[in-house]
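User: I'm new to structure prediction. If I give you an amino acid sequence, what do you actually give back? Let's try with this one:
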Amino acid sequence: MRHPTLLTLALGVRKRRSPLSASEIRVLEGLARGWTTGEVACRSGLPHGQVTGLVLEARRKLRATSATQAVANALALGLLFRSP
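Assistant: Good question. You get back a string of structure tokens that encode the predicted 3D arrangement of the chain. For your 84 residues, that looks like this:
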């Protein structure tokens, strides 16, 4: 099975809803603000392990090799800081 590229992910996002869960988006938005995963956990009230798991799942969905790349990909796709 072929892995989607950022372009194919972008095309999919335009056609449908976000590939990320609301929790994954909130965690990536915290990282985009420069918070550590520990700070995201404290501010969101989630356990640190859950925040780490959400980052890993977001990385997988966005085909990113790091949290920084996941944030960059999510920003490029327009997934972060959307108005409700």
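You can read the tokens as a compact description of the fold. Here is one thing that stands out. Residues 6-76 form a domain with the Arc Repressor Mutant, subunit A fold (CATH 1.10.10.10).
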